[in-house]
Specification:
Distance between the termini: 53 Å
Shape: globular
CATH class of the largest domain: Alpha Beta
Order of helices and strands: HEHEHEHEHEHEEHEHEHEHEEHEEEEEEH
Largest sheet: 9 strands, mixed
Strand content: 15-25%
Radius of gyration: 23 Å
Helix content: 25-40%
Length: 401
């Protein structure tokens, strides 16, 4: 999206504002499909947790995407968006057996990552096929908080507990129709994916009725000009060859599933905010903006580096600014970052704001959540209204004293 489009969106809908580019989403979706074009049965499941606006879900589904859901609420959102329940894989963690049973009654595929839960579910519902999530014991990802395949992770069933899985299958007669793994996010090294794949193939051989193998996601995307990213084309060539060989050895054409979230929507998103004031201290120039970590927590939580541009004044001399929010707590988006000269009223644009940005927002300090817009067919359409005071009070019960 060009700066002109972004500024027009601000004029129309105000700030702070999230805006997503449909062209970039489609480009990333097709890029992944093209990289694995030689897999006969490929399914891309969009990870709802990355960005759960129902209009985005409908756009994904319209392209042919399935759904990766981690909660019953995400399952229901996806169903309301019109997806076939058979194209949803529900992968919860630490939820009650009651929630899993409730989701299974919706006709959705179930993925279980706990031996005790697998045994419970198998005893109650031996006729419902399930997928199992394996922990391959691989430390991978751009940050320890998003590395989920290591030995101390709460996610997945350890590869060393495979005999326990087989015993549960034998005792409950439950049908394992898929094996799954997800080692983390922002994984750059293609070899990490390939090594984890070998582990999953080894586990898969132990189950005779598989329908699919799910490799999760975790592809790294660039966060600033010149940043590195996962070589999807190289991964496509190498993993396709290995997957097709495994299917030949297995004696059956299996479905290959990926669950990208960040890969599909991160670069499609821009977060736009307005500069309230410039504050000079003895050592720092602060650009104070009309947002905070209540709207974009990733820089504070993960140390993520979102490229920031002054789209109101993009070609002026660059100066060093620390961009900070209006929350009554430290909420620094960037420290001593070179940005084109900033004045109060200017609009700053944060890149890579499509994934895990709005979906992790809150009402901290009783601030309203921002609006969301979608750029499609050369039009900017509102897909979420800005909150009002009534939205903060809607579920509160006011007592009289």
């Amino acid at each position: 999206m060009k700066n002109k489009v972004l500024l027009e969106a601000v004029d129309k809908f105000g700030t702070p504002l999230y805006i997503y580019d449909s062209n970039m989403i489609k480009s990333q979706y097709n890029r992944l499909k093209q990289s694995f074009k030689d897999v006969k049965n490929l399914q891309i499941n969009y990870a709802v947790k990355a960005l759960s606006n129902i209009s985005i879900l409908k756009y994904m589904i319209n392209m042919g995407s399935g759904i990766d859901a981690v909660s019953i609420q995400e399952v229901i959102l996806a169903l309301k968006a019109g997806v076939n329940p058979k194209k949803i894989l529900y992968t919860p963690n630490g939820v009650s057996i009651e929630e899993i049973k409730e989701v299974s009654e919706l006709g959705v595929s179930i993925n279980i990552d706990n031996l005790e839960v697998l045994e419970q579910f198998g005893n109650l519902n031996p006729d419902i096929p399930v997928c199992i999530r394996i922990n391959p014991h691989i430390m991978a990802g751009g940050n320890s908080k998003i590395s989920v395949g290591h030995i101390d992770s709460k996610f997945g069933i350890s590869i060393h507990q495979t005999p326990h899985i087989l015993r549960i299958v034998e005792n409950t007669k439950i049908n394992i129709n898929g094996v799954h793994m997800h080692t983390g996010s922002d994984i750059l090294d293609v070899e990490v994916f390939l090594n984890a794949a070998e582990i999953l193939f080894k586990i898969a051989k132990k189950f005779k009725n598989l329908e699919f193998i799910d490799f999760g996601s975790g592809f790294k995307v660039p966060y600033y000009p010149g940043d590195s990213e996962t070589n999807i084309d190289e991964l496509g060539v190498k993993l396709t060859e290995r997957f097709n060989l495994f299917c030949d050895e297995y004696g059956k054409e299996l479905k290959l599933i990926f669950e990208p979230g960040k890969f599909l929507v991160s670069q499609a998103g821009k977060f736009l905010c307005r500069v309230n004031s410039i504050k000079q201290t003895t050592s720092t120039v602060f650009a104070q903006v009309d947002t905070g970590f209540n709207h974009l927590i990733r820089p504070m939580m993960y140390g993520s580096n979102h490229h920031i541009e002054n789209i109101s004044n993009p070609d002026d001399m660059e100066r060093y600014y620390s961009v900070v929010g209006y929350i009554c707590e430290t909420d620094t988006f960037a420290t001593n970052k070179k940005i084109s000269s900033i004045s109060p009223g200017d609009i700053l644009s944060f890149s890579n704001a499509g994934a895990y940005c709005f979906s992790m927002s809150s009402n901290y300090n009783s601030r309203f959540k921002p609006a969301e817009a979608f750029y499609i067919d050369d039009k900017v359409l509102l897909i979420r209204e800005r909150e009002k005071i009534e939205d903060l009070l809607i579920n509160q019960i006011e007592l009289s004293f």
